[in-house]
Amino acid sequence: MLRKILSTTALVAVVSAGAAYAQDATNTDTMDKKPAATTGMEAGMETGATPVFPERQAASEDAKSFFGATDQQVLASSLLGWPVYGQDADDQGREQVGDINDIVMGSDGNATAAVIGVGGFLGIGEKDVAVSFDRLGWQQGEEGNWLTINATSEELENAPSFEYDNPNLLENGTAAIREEADQLQTATNNAANNVANETQDLANTAGNAMNQAGEAAGNAMDDMVAGVDQMGENAAETMNAENPMLEGMSEVDMASVSFDQLEDAAVLSAEGDRVGEVSSVMTHGDQSENILVVDVGGFLGIGEKPVAISADSARIMSDGENYVVKTSYDRETLENQPEFSEQALNDNPDAVLLN
Fold first, then answer.
1. 113 lies in which domain range?
2. CA distance 130 to 136
3. CATH at residue 340
4. Which of 102, 119, 141, 326 has the least C-beta neighbours within 10 A?
């Protein structure tokens, strides 16, 4: 979290500019250049190499080779994992629609899109969508800093998927490299044909052994396919469960749980999504009613507020080691509930306590 907060200045630069690329930060005060006679190398690529970014290589012979750090640069690692907030289709507010999973760079070396993981639950069923940087914005508010996009979760979930299996420039090389590879492949095929003709008798002798090996490989493949099918069934069962966080859990009596065991337990809304954590447990009133104090709302831990929930209106779930509190209130009710304090609870319990 600290790393993301410290990278705020850099993120403002990338979103406002609409592209993330390093600017020339080399000057005579920060870097001493050695002449070619000293280094023994000419500026540019190594002889015989093919540029990773062809368009940028051809841009100028005067392009700088080395860069210093400035406050106008952006590290891709600063963006990765950052939550993205989009438009709520119902009330035009903000809701989290995904996280930054990757950065897409063009043949000119400039970042062109952010790959956002959208949909799914706890990483299950998520899909990647590549979004142009000009749709991202950086919004500073009283409750924290927001990386935003002018799109709803429905629009992103219906957008085309970004497929990592598709070819890309770095993996497949430029046209020149592919042409050389094709020539090498042709030569290899010719050599292989010559060897095959000269060793036909040996191949016939080894045919039976290869057939047996093929049968063994086929059996192994069948076992592998069966294993993959079983994994798919298990994943489907997990997806169809009421809530993956509650898998393997059952309801337990509040009286059997110590207050310490419930601290930091995840709290779920009536819809089943996580809305906060238990910060403390206390008793209240003449009847010693158990009260759960839950931290809700905020962003990256900033702007959270405590609200009080009666333990009688919640269900305590456990697998014997971990605990989850399931409430009967929706997210909006919890986030709009008056802030808890012991003084406020004593003065007006009906307004402060959810029961």
1. 76-158
2. 12
3. 2.30.30.240
4. 141
Single residue among 130, 158, 186 that ends a domain in this structure: 158
pTM higher than 0.85: no
Choosing from 133, 158, 183, the residue where a domain stops is 158
Q: How many Cβ atoms sit within 10 Å of the Cβ of residue 211?
A: 10
Amino acid at 113: A
Q: Are 15 and 136 in contact (CB under 8 A)?
A: yes
- 71-89 tens-digit pLDDT: 887 788 878 888 888 887 6
Q: Is residue 22 part of a domain?
A: no
Comparing C-alpha atoms, which of 272, 331, 273 is closest to residue 307? 331
* Residue 137 domain-assigned (yes or no): yes
pLDDT tens digits, 187-221 = 888 887 877 777 777 767 777 777 777 788 778 87
Residue 255 lies in a domain: yes
Instruction: Look at 99 and 216; give whichever has higher pLDDT.
Output: 99
291 in any annotated domain: yes
Which has more pLDDT, 94 or 348?
348
**Total domains present in the chain:** 2
